[in-house]
Design brief:
Blueprint lengths: L2 E4 L9 H8 L3 E4 L14 H13 L4 E5 L11 H21 L3 E4 L9 H16 L7 E5 L12 H14 L7 E6 H6 L7 H14 L5 E6 L1 E2 L10 E2 L8 H8 L8 E4 L8 H14 L1
Parallel strand pairs: 1-2, 1-10, 2-3, 3-4, 4-5, 5-6, 6-7, 7-10
Antiparallel strand pairs: 8-9
Helix pairs in contact: 3-4, 4-5
Bound molecules: zinc ion (2 copies).
Length: 285
């Protein structure tokens, strides 16, 4: 189990590995395009080489891309649905050029269509994203939080989207993985506050989705309480999950093969180093 954080790629993706190393990351995550919208900046061969060289130089074992925030595969608007799937496909291709291991995205919300229509749109979108894709960056659905008709906030909904996509096209079998965000899962009602609750939540995940599909963990404490359906990240130990939960997560045998990425607040330059130190200490136990 290796630890990292979401790192700024301001000024070019090749700047991120050095910043990751500086705060104590062993792996890192970044945005490869403006998260609020706009086109992806071009990637030159020089930049791609500099990114890969810097990952080696600064001892970053793996890297991951977070898709932009405006993605909605369940929108009633064609332009939003198709724009979302094409942006994700671009990110997968860009990630493959950079040697990035995973790309994760939130699925969106079916606020202006029925829940059934929403899932149908998502399955079509997942098919569009992955159809003919030959790259090496693997696509992950991130468990979401939030009120209303947000899609992908329960294990059975995630399982349904994946299984229906695989059924639609056999070639997509095992192509879709899952990113488990502790804050989102907790806000969606899955307890993680101590060893027994972490075990129970993972048992449930295994039963519904399958632990083999779990590829990465976003490690965030939650300002909101269990099942409050609010997406508010907090520093480890300062939220409603608490340190006991994160200690249990780091020491859960079924998670040993996975890496953890912080998306905790960055109010001061000391925040990431402090949160990473907490995780590294748990790993020694
Ligand atoms: Zn996350
Ligand atoms: Zn979040």
């Amino acid at each position: 189990m290796l630890f990292g954080s979401h790192i700024s790629a301001a000024g070019g993706v090749d700047k991120a590995p050095g910043r990751a190393r500086e705060v104590g990351c062993e792996v890192f995550q970044f945005f490869s395009r403006p998260p609020q919208g706009g086109p992806a900046p071009g990637l030159t061969m020089v930049q791609i080489k500099a990114f890969k060289d810097n990952c080696k130089k600064f001892k970053q074992v793996e890297s991951y891309i977070h898709a932009p925030y405006y993605i909605n595969l369940a929108s009633s608007k064609n332009t939003v649905r198709y724009g979302s799937s094409s942006a994700i496909r671009q990110e997968l291709e860009r990630g493959s050029q950079l040697g990035v291991k995973y790309l994760m995205t939130h699925i969106g919300s079916s606020r202006d269509v029925s829940a059934k229509q929403g899932i149908d749109y998502v399955v079509e979108g997942l098919d569009r994203i992955l159809d003919g894709y030959q790259g090496t960056t693997q696509f992950l659905i991130e468990i979401s939080a939030g009120a209303g008709k947000v899609i992908g906030d329960t294990f059975d909904e995630i399982a349904e989207m994946i299984k229906r996509t695989e059924k639609k096209k056999a070639a997509l079998k095992n192509k879709i993985g899952v990113c488990f965000d502790t804050c989102h899962a907790f806000a969606s009602g899955y307890d993680l506050r101590d060893k027994p609750s972490v075990k129970k939540t993972l048992d449930e995940f295994d039963k519904q989705v399958g632990l083999a599909r779990l590829k990465l963990i976003h490690c965030n404490d939650s300002m909101a309480g269990l099942g409050e359906h609010k997406d508010r990240h907090e520093h480890l130990g300062k939220g409603k999950i608490g340190l006991k939960g994160f200690e249990a997560l780091v020491n859960e045998p079924r998670l040993k093969r996975l890496n953890l990425v912080l998306e905790t607040p960055k109010d001061t330059p000391q925040d990431d180093p402090r949160n990473l130190k907490i995780l590294k200490k748990f790993r020694l136990n």
